[in-house]
Amino acid sequence: MTYLGLDIGTSGVKAVLIDGEGSALGEASAPLSVSRPRPGFSEQDPAHWWDAVLKAVDALKERYPDLVSAIRGIGLSGQMHGATLLDRDNQVIRPAILWNDVRSAAECAEMEEALPALRKIAGNIAMPGFTAPKILWVKKHEPDNYAKIAKVLLPKDYVRFLLTGTYVSDMSDASGTLWLDVEYRGWSDDLLAVTGLTTEHMPTLVEGSEPSGHLSGALCRRWGIAETPVVAGGGGDNAASACGIGAVEPGTGFVSLGTSGVLFVSNDKFRPNTEGAVHAFCHAIPDTWHQMGVFLSATDSLNWFAKLVGQDAAGVTQAVAETYSAPGEEIFLPYLSGERTPHNNAAARGSFVGLSHLSDARTMGQAVMEGVAFAVRDCQRVLSDAGTQIDTLIAVGGGSKSDLWLEMIATNLGMAIAVPEDGDFGGAFGAARLGLIAATGADPRTICTKPKIEKTIDPRADLKSAYDDQYARFRALYAGIEEARAL
């Protein structure tokens, strides 16, 4: 038997096949593009997600027909927060408003004013990235579209509807809507009422490792699948990735250096810290929660800088590594597209400070890498404020290919970072594991195990004091620069 994981990302859809032992057998992908009709807007046509799913699974069928025929379970992962609006005929009303769309900042303030208990119930601050403020924006600016809303689905859950005909979401992805009572793992009538909606507008909820429906007969015939597979609840992209990397036990976590940066840790109970803009969500497996510190420009910062100086990112990191000895004089604040943790400021912007005649592409590149490391440390600080300790940490994402970058982060966090052997342990792989669990009834903790570790990056004890001093400067800069920008 085989199991399929589908990850509905922002830049593409990825499909991964695994066997009953959890080994990857094959993969395929199809690209997506983002529409930005106005500054701060970010949208996609949900039809494009479906087209990409069909292309990816069709490609798997062409390459591995016997493996696809043996699929018994399917799991879903996807970009979180996107508002996909359906009318009573299940037609998409407008393009989906995505996680990185910041148009609804004013609506966030309105939500918190209308319901003072919002943060306590949701366990999170109202942020423009979340789904609920987007609906208030539609109500205010597109009242005709708002009046047509019959269902609101997240991106992967719209794909689920087309796969199974069911309206279902999982606890982890639903946590990012700002409509879920995260501690009690159910929709909140009070939170929904702030946006004029009810549970009738919402999908039903299951755990990520539970069945949510079955693949339609038409799709079974299209892909030559012999027996109707079960479709698991799945998870939001980071929760699904945690299932893929084995971060499901309390205290286990990962640091992701992708376009954005994430410091993720699993919890045995609900531990919010809204003052620090921590994301406190349900995990994709039962009776488990997780916290995330999220900053929006990790490798995005390095790619931006590399383009600015006419190099590629690998060239910048290599040049820094060749001469690196200690923290530099320059400091970089990586807020190129605003910030979530810990500042919750969509209007924040990046800055270089401490430039001199000696500053060049190498020293400024080092500052960019260190600025991202300090952003990870910011996330650790506010997670610690919530009473959380991270016991083990695994590195994922494109930035984790730089040992020096991981060493900077390890030194700032004061803990070792494990680097897995080559392999893709992201959302699609974790989703496939969830599909396996839903199909077989296996214990999630026996399936969602850690990968083999290639090496461990240890902190530099000799640089701890220097980085402590530099981090203190980094922290002091944000308030002063934002105050100056406001003048």
From TrEMBL:
Domain of life, source organism: Bacteria
Magnesium as UniProt keyword: no
PROSITE patterns in alphabetical order: FGGY_KINASES_1
Domain Carbohydrate kinase FGGY N-terminal: from-to ranges: 3-244
Catalysed reaction equations from the record: D-xylulose + ATP = D-xylulose 5-phosphate + ADP + H(+)
Alphabetical keyword list: ATP-binding, Carbohydrate metabolism, Kinase, Nucleotide-binding, Transferase, Xylose metabolism
Positions marked as site (Important for activity): 7
Residues annotated to bind substrate: 80-81
KW Nucleotide-binding (keyword) present: yes
Residue ranges annotated for the Carbohydrate kinase FGGY C-terminal domain, each copy included: 254-439
Pfam families reported in the protein's UniProt record: FGGY_C (PF02782), FGGY_N (PF00370)
Active site: 237 (proton acceptor)
EC number of this enzyme: 2.7.1.17
GO molecular function: D-xylulokinase activity
Family according to the record: Belongs to the FGGY kinase family.
General function of this protein: Catalyzes the phosphorylation of D-xylulose to D-xylulose 5-phosphate.
Protein name: Xylulose kinase
The organism of origin for this protein: Pelagibacterium nitratireducens
